[in-house]
Amino acid sequence: MVYEDAETTALRLALCQEHWFGACPPALQDALLAHGRLRRLASGETLYARGVPSEHALYCVVEGALCIGTTDSKGLPSLLVYLEPHHWFGELPLIDGLPRTHDAVADGATAVLCVPQTRLQGWLDTHPAHWRDIARLAAGKLRVAYQVLGEPGSLPQRLARRLWLVAHGFGSRGAAPRLRLNLSQEQLAHMLGASRQSINMALRSLEQVGVIAQHYRSIEVLDIEALRLSAICAR
């Protein structure tokens, strides 16, 4: 497993566009960049596996994307979240010391900033005020989980809600959503527990009213406000 140093000046500028990192005090930003090392993954390569103790406290997608999900006892996959740059994740084992709950697999060539558990834990022990920032990261994930838990409404509504969340980096991008979403119909089906045919019909219904445009393995959001309204209003 090979890690490499990151070019921190350019990386800091990019990471500061993300809501959580941008709001962190400079001392914590410095520590994450100083201790973090880049790992490059080929498409389909596993960053970490469910049930395995973690050697890293935090991760951040720098290039490419990661699929966070599981496979059930019958071999059927589910996709919890699809993470793109510059999303920070993986904080739970830092807080509770338990193994990973999901698999993280690269979707295409991907680079991830990995912050070692022992180094960050030691730094936080000497700078305990910054645990509040780690808690803020975990709380943001919990808020998103509450939003999607149960996901009432028709499949087109649920799909629009999930696309809106992906566009906003599951809460990490704030007011600067990503309008080109690199998600396939199959990935959306795994994410929502629906058939690919049902996802196809739901996407077409959004496309017909000018909310999105479909491309090969990607979806372009044409009207982000209309997408938000589609998530809460039946069509």
Molecular structure report:
By secondary structure, the chain is α+β, with helices and mostly antiparallel strands. It has ten helices and twelve strands. It has helices spanning 8-15, 19-23, 26-35, 92-96, 117-126, 131-148, 155-167, 185-192, 196-208, 224-232, and strands at residues 3-4, 37-41, 46-48, 56-63, 66-71, 77-83, 88-89, 103-106, 110-116, 180-181, 212-215, 218-221. The strands form three sheets. Strands 1-2-9-4-7 form a five-stranded antiparallel beta sheet. The protein has a four-stranded antiparallel beta sheet with strand order 3-8-5-6. A three-stranded antiparallel beta sheet has the order 10-12-11. The longest helix is centred in the middle third of the chain and has 18 residues, at 131-148. The radius of gyration is 18 Å and the shape is globular. The N and C termini lie far apart (49 Å). The mean pLDDT is 89.
State Rg: 18 Å
- Give the neighbour order of strands across the main sheet: 1-2-9-4-7
Structural class: alpha+beta
* Average residue pLDDT: 89
Query: What's the total number of strands?
Result: 12
Main sheet, how many strands, which sense, barrel? 5 strands, antiparallel
Q: How helical, in percent, are the residues?
A: 40-55%
Low-confidence stretches: none
Q: Output the number of helix runs.
A: 10
**Percent in strands:** 15-25%
Basic shape: globular
Order of helices and strands: EHHHEEEEEEHEEHHHEHHEEH
